[in-house]
Write a structure and sequence with these properties.
heterodimer, A: 280 residues, mainly alpha, MetI-like fold, 2 domains, 12 helices, disordered C terminus, B: 310 residues, 2 strands, 1% strand, globular
Chain lengths: 280, 310
């Protein structure tokens, strides 16, 4: 009896040790970023390095939040990611509805094209996008960035929305049709309202992709007042190479929206994400 | 963080065929799909046609009158030592990253799936383990530039432990930079592998393990004969996806080394970007971009075939 118990305790200690070591690997760099953001710039490289600073200060955050140019990056990211999320959800609901509730020729072909969009390398697209966006007068504008971000968000959103709609019983929309409604009313009166949990997961992921996007934001905008947060972080690195505390504060502020969304919707989000990759 | 997922969106729908399907009724699904179709034509079909046509021409984008150039751009790219170096670096970067993502992801997923610890403990660790994946690449680049600075904390710790004698310039040393950016990529990318494998582990029926235990299989044999075969489909599809994603990594390289020192971390993505937006050689860049597209299609082909087998 005791040996079984001892072995169990040992196994538990082993797993816990492994988990803590892995946790340090994953978490220490993030903690160091947090810690550096509270330091004065002179303290950043002081030896011996301290994880918990004695001269705790919020100056780096004040510096970022009191600077209109930095706040503009956040405003731009909210505008772009917000618009991408709304538009992606709208288009994906319509497409998911077609895939889930109708049979039509070309269904498989269109589906295959949508899936394949996800494999096209962004670096291949960015060259013609640059040409197109300049030709259409969308260079250095919000619509140029919003439109091009949708190449990343739309395929995933359509696949997830279709999968979600497939789980809803068809009797729901049939009942609307019996009452004389058409497919349009069935979608907006019945299916969309009960799909809200699924659509939240799609929306969160869409927002994250757009908020974090780097290559198109770098290439298709030019002036500082049109730059998004990831490019803002890079600009900060160029301007004040050694203001590490401010760079860390900016990095944390820039990550807050995604971290908050993830923590709020963690369960639903992971479920939706793995549903596509694992059970497909 | 672009995702690549396949699913059976073409789910069969049981509908009794109505007596007369009018033309208008048949067009209804295409109506719902029209915004998607327009966007895909604008965002994928036209751009791919454009980049292919650029790749056979000269003086594109920057000048009005471009001329047909045949295969000249391809010859130029394929004989450029920088391109060949980028190809080789990319191969190392993506294969090492993918293997490491798989090993770390599997190890972490199995620890997080343990029956020995409470759900709350596991939930806390799960959040910590997912953390690196939640930060945008720009942030990850800045964090690691701080940590790996010659005067930074990594060198301090290694020096204190007596492992190095003087500060190492991790990202500036031609012999080390490729391995260092690969390491950073491993750190930032394993969580997605881990999440998928964890879902896969949770989907393995418990009676398979019970049957193996009854047969007297020890934990190692249970891992080799139950866990691995059950996870095989997830592992294979995640591995191909990861190769594709990692080959598309641009921001991490651009913000840590910019492809240097001495091209040692130049990737296909940074090479193409430089040709286009630093050299303004859009035609050459387009040829490189088409080659990248073809290489990706080869990987995607294996992915699709793997999906069909499942």
């Amino acid at each position: 009896m005791t040996t079984v118990k001892t072995r169990r305790t040992l196994a538990k200690a082993g797993v816990l040790t492994g988990l803590v070591l892995g946790g340090l690997f994953a978490g220490l760099p993030v903690l160091w970023m947090l810690s550096t953001s509270f330091k004065s710039n002179g303290e950043v490289f002081r030896n011996p390095p301290k994880l918990i600073t004695e001269s705790f200060s919020l100056d780096a955050y004040r510096e970022i939040l009191g600077n209109g140019a930095q706040l503009r990056f956040f405003l731009n990211s909210y505008i772009v990611a917000g618009a991408v999320t709304v538009l992606t959800l709208l288009v994906a609901v319509l497409a998911g509805y077609a895939f889930s509730r109708f049979n039509f020729p070309l269904q498989r072909t269109i589906n295959a094209v949508i899936v394949s969009v996800q494999a096209v390398p962004p670096i291949t697209l960015v060259i013609p996008y640059f040409g197109l966006v300049v030709a259409l007068g969308l260079y250095n504008t919000y619509p140029g960035l919003i439109l091009t971000h949708m190449v990343f968000t739309l395929p995933y959103a359509i696949i997830m929305t279709t999968a979600y709609l497939n789980t809803l019983p068809r009797e729901l929309d049939e009942s609307v049709k019996v009452d004389g409604g058409n497919s349009w009313t069935a979608l907006w009166r019945i299916l969309v309202p009960i799909s809200v949990p699924g659509l939240i997961a799609v929306g969160v992921y869409t927002f994250m992709i757009s908020w974090n996007e780097y290559l198109f934001a770098l290439t298709l905008t030019r002036t500082d007042d049109m730059r998004t947060v990831p490019i803002g972080i890079q600009l900060l690195m160029g301007q004040h190479s050694y203001e590490w505390n401010q760079m860390m504060a900016m990095s944390i502020l820039g990550s807050v929206p995604v971290l908050v969304l993830f923590l709020l919707f963690q369960r639903r989000f992971i479920g939706g994400l793995t549903a596509g990759a694992v059970k497909a | 963080m672009t995702s690549l997922m396949a699913s059976k969106t073409a789910a069969p729908v049981e509908q009794p065929p109505p007596p007369r399907r009018t033309m208008a009724r048949r067009l209804v699904p295409y109506g719902y799909l029209s915004p998607t179709i327009v966007l895909i034509v604008v965002l994928m079909v036209i751009p791919i046609v454009m980049v292919i046509s650029y790749s056979f021409r000269d003086n594109v984008i920057v000048q009005e009158n471009s001329v047909f150039a045949g295969l000249a751009n391809y010859t130029k790219v394929l004989t450029d030592p920088d391109f060949l170096a980028a190809l080789q670096n990319t191969a190392v970067f993506i294969s090492v990253s993918t293997v490491a993502h798989l090993l770390l992801g599997l190890a972490f997923a199995m620890m997080l799936n343990t029956q020995l610890l409470s759900g709350v403990t596991k939930a806390v660790f799960r959040i910590v383990y997912i953390l690196p994946w939640l930060f945008t690449i720009a942030v990850i680049a800045v964090i690691w530039r701080l940590l790996l600075d010659p005067a930074g904390v990594v060198n301090y710790v290694l020096h204190t432990l007596g492992l190095i004698q003087e500060g190492v310039n991790w990202l500036g040393d031609p012999g080390k930079a490729l391995w260092v950016v690969t390491f950073i990529n491993i750190w930032s990318g394993y969580p997605f592998f881990m999440i998928s494998l964890l879902a896969g582990l949770q989907g393995i029926p418990a009676d398979l393990y019970e049957a193996a235990a009854v047969d007297g299989a020890n934990p190692l044999r249970r891992f080799l004969h139950v866990t691995l075969p059950q996870l095989r489909p997830v592992i294979l599809s995640m591995a191909v996806l990861d190769l594709i994603w990692t080959s598309q990594q641009f921001a991490l390289i651009w913000m840590t080394t910019g492809g240097g020192p001495l091209n040692t971390t130049e990737m296909l993505s940074t090479y193409t970007y430089k040709q286009a937006f630093s050299e303004y050689e859009f035609a050459t860049a387009s040829a490189a971009a088409v080659i990248v597209l073809l290489l990706t299609m080869i990987l995607a082909f294996f992915y699709v075939r793997q999906q069909r087998e499942r």
